[in-house]
Amino acid sequence: GNLGMALLSYRGFEKEGFEIIAAFDAEPDRRRDKKIEHPILGMEQLPDFVGKKNVKMAILTVPADAAQTVVNQLVQAGITGILNFSPIVLTVPEEVMVNSVNVAIELENLSYFIQD
Length: 116
What we know:
By secondary structure, this protein is of the alpha/beta class. Helices cover 40% and strands 16% of the residues. The strands form two sheets. It has a three-stranded parallel beta sheet with strand order 3-4-5, covered by helices on one side. Strands 1-2 form a two-stranded parallel ribbon. Helix 4 links the parallel strand 3 (57-60) and strand 4. The model has no long low-confidence stretch (mean pLDDT 88).
């Protein structure tokens, strides 16, 4: 979604030593944005890409109803660290680490400090 596209454009990862090398989408052709320099690949390309590039971490920005299915694909491909922006609790094997970011709760926390 839009969050995924925003994260692709974010330059702060590089300063911390992280490099986003590709994005994956169920419909990659609808995601053609000339400002995005990373390849946007189909989900069927994920296992091969992750294996060849030895990718270990992923950022998940899919809707709740697709999140567990996509996580299963990530884990099967060899991903062991997931930053989860989907609003559900994910089930993963013990050796896989998931850090969840609940944007709604963060906004709620922020609103508490700015109330009159």
